[in-house]
Amino acid sequence: MNIQQKKEEFLSVFENLSTQEQEEVIDFTYFLKTKQNNSDSSKELNQEIQHLLSNSNSFEFLSQEEDIYSLSDAQEVYS
Description:
Elements: H1 3-15, H2 19-54, H3 60-64
C-alpha cells in the first residue's frame, strides 16, 4: 500500500467519524506535530549547550584540582 492509498483510506475512515471524533483526531495530529518540533528544538538546544560548555573554561578547575585525599585518609581499608 503506497502513501496515496493510505491517505485515501484514512480520509474515508475520517469522514465516517463523528464531528467530535474528527476534532480529537485533528487535536492529536497537532499534538504529534508539536511534540516533533519540541523534540527537534530540544536536541538543538542540547547541542548548543554542549558546544558552549566544551569551549568554556568554567569547569577547568576540576581537572586541575590536586588530590587532597590519599588511601591513608580512609578509616578502613577493604581489599
